[in-house]
């Protein structure tokens, strides 16, 4: 976890001049011409699935409330095949500095399954046939001029937060340097997505 939590990071990002947040709209709804796009959506979606759909797993969350303390910690993973959920998160343990003596506790069970077309794509699967399709999407992406594909969905890799943040900071260094040139160009990928 970041030293001061994610809220501080997001607050500081939003305080940067020139940042405009639009909620409840899709990238596809935007009609403006941008000088450069940093795209963090699914790479196959950007190309309207023209080479096929990459595979993802999604999750169904089941909320439940218990008395007192349910499991004594923020997250417990369940790896046994006979247990239908993969983990239980108990949210009050993510904020141990909150000293209130809550009488109730809110938890979520996570059930993992293959993502359908209308599900949120959480985890890139990367089976052999997906790797070939991914290579073709990467080749296509490299033909584009003013867009960089980033993050978990843009590069179709499972990333933890520490890696995501590290890669974003490294990309910022490249962008900073490029912006010092008059006619800057930025790569389609800041990392090797293969
Ligand atoms: C269920 C789950 C649990 C996780 N648990 C952990 C954990 O415990 N520890 C850890 O380190 N990491 C965890 N991760 C991983 C972590 O969440 C990711 O690494 C991180 O969020 C990736 O950041 P990102 O910016 O690449 O992508 P995201 O956080 O997915 O951001 C992409 C954004 O783009 C938006 N977007 C996508 N398509 C469009 C579109 N067409 N138009 C507009 N907006 C769009 C999405 O809504 C989203 O807000 C977990 C991930 C999942 C899915």
Automatic annotation (TrEMBL):
GO terms for cellular component: cytosol. Residues 1-158 form the UDP-galactopyranose mutase C-terminal domain. One of its GO terms (molecular function) is UDP-galactopyranose mutase activity. PANTHER family: UDP-GALACTOPYRANOSE MUTASE. This is UDP-galactopyranose mutase C-terminal domain-containing protein. It comes from Gluconobacter roseus NBRC 3990.
């Amino acid at each position: 976890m970041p030293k001061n939590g994610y809220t501080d990071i997001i607050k500081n990002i939003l305080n940067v001049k020139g940042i405009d947040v639009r909620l409840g709209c899709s990238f596809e709804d935007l009609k403006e011409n941008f000088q450069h796009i940093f795209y963090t959506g699914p790479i196959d979606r950007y190309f309207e699935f023209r080479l096929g759909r990459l595979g993802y797993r999604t999750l169904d969350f089941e909320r439940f409330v218990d008395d007192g303390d349910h499991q004594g910690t923020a997250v417990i993973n369940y790896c046994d095949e006979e247990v239908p959920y993969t983990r239980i998160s108990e949210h009050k343990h993510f904020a141990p500095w909150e000293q209130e003596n809550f009488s109730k506790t809110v938890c979520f069970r996570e059930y993992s399954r293959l993502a359908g077309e209308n599900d949120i794509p959480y985890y890139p699967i990367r089976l052999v046939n997906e790797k070939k399709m991914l290579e073709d999407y990467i080749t296509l992406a490299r033909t584009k001029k003013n867009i960089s594909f980033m993050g978990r969905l843009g590069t179709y890799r499972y990333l933890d937060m520490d890696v995501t943040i590290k890669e974003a900071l490294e990309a910022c260094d490249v962008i900073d340097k490029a912006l010092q040139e008059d006619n800057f160009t930025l790569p389609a990928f800041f990392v090797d997505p293969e």
